[in-house]
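Protein modeling request. Please complete all fields; requests missing the sequence field cannot be processed.
Requester role: graduate student
Desired output: 3D structure, token encoding
Chains: 1
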Amino acid sequence: MSSPTPDALLGPADVRELAAALGVRPTKQRGQNFVIDANTVRRIVRTAGVRPDDVVVEVGPGLGSLTLALLEVADRVTAVEIDDVLAGALPATIVARMPERADRFALVHSDALRVTELPGPAPTALVANLPYNVAVPVLLHMLDTFPSIERTLVMVQSEVADRLAAAPGSKVYGVPSVKANWYAEVKRAGAIGRNVFWPAPNVDSGLVSLVRRAEPIRTTASKAEVFAVVDAAFAQRRKTLRAALAGWAGSAAAAEAALVAAGVSPQARGESLTVAEFARIAEAAPSRGAAPASPKEFQEK
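Delivered output (301 residues):
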């Protein structure tokens, strides 16, 4: 395999020239901020642990800054792009700047939230600069749809990174934290400055690493059943679980019975529970016919 030319990656002038030629202006509607720093995209690829045998899927490639850096290392890269103009231009950019790797690149012109299959071998890694406004739904959809994805590194708004990587008990622990944990071990993997983007965003960015669990969460409940509990618990996160899950269970008393059966205090709040505890609550749902336990154990807490 011949190595790419040293100037194959996009610098600030390259990004602006490409954008001007295409008549592209980054839009807030799609959360677009193009990376203009080659060192940053190479750092992302290193942090992602991309290997020569990896099949990488990238969401929102934009003008191709990260795509080119991924192609330097990975076996194959498939990019999912919703924007008509950007999707139309990206293959030509790859051919022009990295012709020796062009046959290793595939483009899917689609909304990532609607993608259910990808061309070529199954993806082993997801690496993406995710648009801020759809970062969490896209991440969860890709992890759910493509179980072959073992490792993920996404760049998202710093606050979103904090929420995804938060542990139980944290003030920012919530629905994204629990649902991401259903699939993977999640951690913060660094910060990204504003000056590496064009246009420079008015928020900081962070990297989040997700390594898929070697063994799924052990539960007889389905993902949908567990996520229904999570959504209900955090819809009223200031309330105790007995109150927050009343609608989900049918009544506060039924919620209390399910919580006790799961070994969770009815006075606890969602922000203190692990994904495994949410799964136990789902298993004890009244609709599943779980036998309620006595609530006496927790009445004094």
